[in-house]
2-hydroxy-3-oxopropionate reductase (Streptomyces gulbargensis), 303 residues
Amino acid sequence: MRGTLTMSSNLPKIAWIGLGIMGSPMSENLIKAGYSVTGYTLEQDKLDRLAAAGGTAAGSIAEAVKDADVVITMVPASPQVEAIAYGPEGILENAKQGALVIDMSSITPQTSVDLAKNAKEKGIRVIDAPVSGGEAGAIEAVLSIMVGGEQADFDEALPILQALGKTIVLCGPHGSGQTVKAANQLIVAVNIQACAEAVVFLEKSGVDLAAALDVLNGGLAGSTVLTRKKDNFLNRDFKPGFRIDLHHKDMGIVTDAARNVGAALPVGAVVAQLVASLRAQGDGGLDHSALLRAVERLSGQQV
């Protein structure tokens, strides 16, 4: 125990803003790694959870960030990032000069570029570092982290990111992490959709679904998506690890960004509409593996 306390005094002080499905376990992994973490979020029960894990709950963003060397943000979308970053109570007005902001939210690349530019004027550095791996990856600290920003800032952030994830790559300048995350969300959505179609096809054909998914996952059709979501499909368990509402947001980001650069996403556009239709039918709060429900409806099943 004494070693942990000694180590933590030499480590950067961290402020964590946003303690949701991903943010709570991630912040706890930093505490386990010996970091001092002060957190702020809108829900009192999440602040209580952080305190119980050994962190410090703050009453505001300003209070959380004022003494922090590193500020990590994990909120749902661009409007929330802008809300916590800007304004008199925001990060840029209250963090100390020289602080490093690591934004791990999944937002538009342009929001990241603008944030980095505005922060620089205040003497604050920013990298965008969105993640892939879902709730399980956050809990197990095996997230894939795609980063955009300066090499020196990436190097400084790396030890912190290594306490949160397994695959950590600098992908280019500000916004690059978000662009790669958008591509990730495109691949994941199309993959889940293909798995969902296969599940309905297999079940309607009278095949043993568990056996079929096992053998499929051992061949070229196997994927991390199938490994992670197999039980969701088998048990129709759509408790959110990653909500349809958030994947809907991400499909909007990737289709818009692709249009801006002149890249065609014909299959991605179809899946984006299927995600949107699922949300319109009231399933936005379910896990994205609930794309299975959309395929079942299209196949004439009552869900």
About this structure: The longest strand covers residues 165-172.
